[in-house]
Specification:
elongated; mainly alpha
């Protein structure tokens, strides 16, 4: 069992991020224990919360939105693998489109860098291209 700070550290996020995920319903907010003593009034999080937080962070790294992550978590509980696969395919298609855009941008920038090297005087082709918005 750990505090919210320990949970945040384990998930590689800040405490406010954990609280945000709780407000969004992605993470549960445990009840505060009653009574006095050392742990009185301090919420404790277990391994399940740590796993869930790590899942959220991994899914975000894969490009899923928080709404999609909430849906994935709900689907996991319902075992609706068909919808999970559909979400994954949608994400793959979006990543493929982004990769294509990045490859095109890299190709254009390489071309401009060659032009810049070939013409040491006059306006820089790289800056000129960005000014034109191309």
């Amino acid at each position: 069992m750990t505090t919210i700070a320990g949970l945040a550290r384990a998930g590689g996020v800040g405490v406010e991020t954990v609280r945000y995920y709780q407000r969004r319903g992605l993470l549960e907010t445990p009840d505060k224990p009653g009574g006095g003593g050392v742990s009185g009034g301090i919420r404790r999080y277990g391994k399940t919360a740590i796993r869930r937080l790590r899942f959220i962070r991994s899914a975000q790294a894969a490009g899923f939105t928080l709404d999609q992550i909430a849906e994935l978590l709900d689907l996991d509980a319902s075992e609706d693998r068909l919808r999970v696969r559909a979400l994954a395919r949608e994400r793959i298609a979006a990543l493929d489109a982004k990769i294509a855009d990045l490859v095109a941008a890299r190709t254009a920038l390489k071309h401009l860098a060659v032009e810049c090297q070939a013409s040491p005087t006059g306006p820089c082709p790289i800056i000129a291209a960005f000014e034109r918005g191309t």
